[in-house]
């Protein structure tokens, strides 16, 4: 059962939305342009036309590349083609986005490098991350009460091992909080149940997400916290989120 105990009640939750839609559109287009330039000429672009805010602000960022694939039933779906990023803000957002995009296209060990001919069939998504916040609990089971699906991503850490799961991933695969924590541990090279031990640190963060609806198409903000799964589990929270975002309460 979800508890608002450690979130300062519903109205205490502030969504992490530091960027405007136009700024988000710029980052998604920048990610695509960076990969196009790198695959075409082996060069890293310089975003000289970037808004000053994006050149100066520092946030963690992940770039996701998905391929549009047609299934046997004729229905098109998105298939992960690469995802790489930086949980911490180590350099200006434009530079981090460029590097994450290039690495997602060429360095994700789960996939072969993206080819130039594939660019017409893939969509780009940029997730801008808040600073990870360490959860302080008296028992590991309290993590289940303090992680909100669709709002929080999770980063686990033990010694030099770290694993991260973005907020949208848990919603995409319809995970519960326990599965989310287990997946983060697996990505850190730890046993799935490692989060239940007292020697694993668990951090939460939020992400503002922008993505293409189709290759080189319109860019929108992806509000995964308004997903029906989230609404069913946290109805009061979703009502407050709708108020903050400025849209009518979902019914």
Explain the overall architecture.
This protein has helices at 21-41, 52-56, 93-106, 143-146, 167-172, 177-187, 228-233, 235-245, and strands spanning 60-70, 76-86, 122-129, 133-134, 153-158, 161-165, 201-205, 207-212, 219-222. The chain is α+β, with helices and mostly antiparallel strands. The two termini are 22 Å apart.
Largest sheet: 5 strands, antiparallel
Instruction: Provide the spatial order of strands within the biggest beta sheet.
Output: 2-1-3-8-9
How large a portion of the residues is in β-strands, by DSSP E?
15-25%
Structurally, the number of domains stands at 2
Low-pLDDT runs = 1-11
Number of strands: 9
CATH class of the largest domain: Alpha Beta
Mean pLDDT: 90
Shape: globular
Total helix count? 8
Map the helices and strands.
Elements: H1 21-41, H2 52-56, E1 60-70, E2 76-86, H3 93-106, E3 122-129, E4 133-134, H4 143-146, E5 153-158, E6 161-165, H5 167-172, H6 177-187, E7 201-205, E8 207-212, E9 219-222, H7 228-233, H8 235-245
């Amino acid at each position: 059962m979800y508890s608002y105990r450690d979130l300062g009640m519903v109205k205490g939750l502030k969504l992490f939305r530091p960027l405007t839609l136009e700024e988000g559109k710029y980052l998604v287009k920048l990610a695509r342009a960076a990969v196009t330039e790198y695959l075409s000429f082996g060069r890293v672009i310089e975003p000289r036309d970037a808004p000053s805010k994006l050149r100066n602000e520092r946030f963690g960022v992940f770039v996701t590349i998905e391929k549009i694939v047609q299934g046997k039933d004729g229905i098109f779906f998105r298939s992960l083609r690469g995802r790489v990023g930086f949980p911490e803000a180590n350099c200006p957002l434009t530079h981090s986005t460029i590097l994450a995009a290039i690495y997602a296209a060429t360095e994700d060990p789960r996939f072969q490098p993206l080819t130039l001919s594939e660019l017409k069939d893939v969509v780009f998504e940029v997730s801008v991350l808040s600073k990870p916040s360490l959860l302080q609990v008296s028992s590991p089971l309290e993590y289940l009460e303090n992680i909100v699906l669709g709002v929080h991503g999770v980063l686990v850490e033990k010694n030099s091992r770290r694993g991260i799961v973005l907020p949208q991933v848990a919603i995409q695969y319809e995970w519960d909080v326990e599965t989310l924590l287990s997946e983060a541990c697996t990505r850190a090279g730890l046993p799935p149940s490692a989060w239940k031990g007292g020697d694993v640190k668990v951090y939460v963060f939020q992400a503002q997400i922008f993505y293409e609806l189709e290759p080189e198409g319109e860019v929108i903000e992806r509000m995964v916290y308004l997903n029906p799964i989230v609404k069913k589990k946290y109805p009061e929270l979703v009502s407050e989120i709708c108020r903050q975002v400025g849209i009518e309460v979902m019914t």
